[in-house]
Each structure stands twice: as C-alpha cells, then as structure tokens.
Amino acid sequence: MTAFMGELIGTMLLIILGDGVVANVVLNKSKGQNSGWIVITAGWGFAVAMAVYAVGQVSGAHLNPAVTIGLALIGKFSWSQVAPYIVAQMIGAFLGAVIVYITYLPHWAATEDKGAKLAVFSTGPAIPNTPANLLTEIIGTFVLVLGILALGTNQFTQGLNPFIVGVFIWAIGLSLGGPTGYAINPARDLGPRIAHAILPIPGKGNSDWGYSWIPVVGPIIGGALGALFFHFVF
After folding, report:
1. How many domains is the chain partitioned into structurally?
2. Measured distance CA(72)–CA(74) in Å, rounded
3. pTM over cut 0.70
4. Which CATH number is 209's domain given?
5. Using an 8 Å Cβ cutoff, are 203 and 112 in contact?
6. At residue 154, does pLDDT exceed 70?
7. Which residues contact 79 (CB under 8 A, 6 or more apart)?
C-alpha cells in the first residue's frame, strides 16, 4: 500500500467512526440518540486511535492537513509530499462521510432538525463569534500538534502511542470542544461538508459555507504554531 492510499484509507476510517458516532447521537430513531457529548468525544477518540493503528506503519497516519503542514514546517516531513497527503486526506474524509450517509439512510428523513443533519458532517459554533471561534480552533489544534509531537518523544509509550493519541483527542474534545465542536482538522470538516452539500439528504439545510473557512484556517494556524513551539522549546 502506498502512503497516499494509507492516508486516504486512514482518514476514511476516521470519518466513518467519527461522523458515525455523531449520527448515532443526533439522528432521530437511532439506538444511540441523545446519548450526549461524552459519547461523541469518546467515539472520536476511539476513531483516531483505530485509524492510526490501521495505517500508521504505512503513511505515518497524519490524517490531518494541519499535522502534515506542521511537520513539514519543522523539517519532519517533505514539502513535496504535503499536497499529495492533503489530497488523500480530503478524498478519504469525503468518502467516509458518504459511507456514514448510506449507513444511516432511513434516519435522514426521520430527522427534521436541519442543524442536526449538518452536525453529522461538519462542525459549527455554539455561539457564533468569528474571532473567538477562530481562536478556539487555533488553540485546540496547537494543543493537538504539540501533544502529538511531545508524545512521540516518550520512549516508554512506544506501541501504545495510537491509543494514547486517541485518549488525547478525547481529552481535547472534553476540555476544548464546547465552543466550536473541535474540528482541529481541515479535512475532517471540509471533506464531509462537501459531502453534505452534494448528497441527496431529505430536508437538509444549507452547508454553512460562511463558517466553513474557520475550521480550515484555524487548525492550519494552530498546527503550525504547535509544531514551531515544539521545535524551539523541546
């Protein structure tokens, strides 16, 4: 398997399990309906861990353009591979969202809430405030990339790192996810948002393109700052 396919498949698995847990919690008549934020954040943490275990030996399991760009900035990844990795991540995220759509096919018509349907695919702010929302995504991704790089330096966690990163994602969601839904990953938000715009979802609303740049730009800034902080301080 090539690194490109590793990133594609890994990101697809991430979105199948991550968007899947949101669908389970927010869509009407799902077995997990109304099970809450703890279930969503745990599901995303497990999704990251499983995706990293699946393709970590193939591509390094970036699964996130903010991680890819951050690593390239500090010389830990070739700039020539940045664009192919991001393309693979975007394709994987889109395909993962399509699979979630198919899995929950009868539940879209059963769910009247347009916002809930969009929430399955992409993030949105609890309180719309552009500077604050952007700052939240910067902080969350700064913590993510800094933490991933720091964990990688600890020899005693080798082999457990994917699981520990999953727990770390869970912690970020519990602690920092409230204001914006913690996209902390441009592909995770933009790929499924495109799927939401394209797919024939009954009674869906708009895809909130006015907000869509925040979970792209914020994580890229935050990931770059987190990588640079690690490089110069650690």
Report:
1. 1
2. 5
3. yes
4. 1.20.1080.10
5. yes
6. yes
7. 72
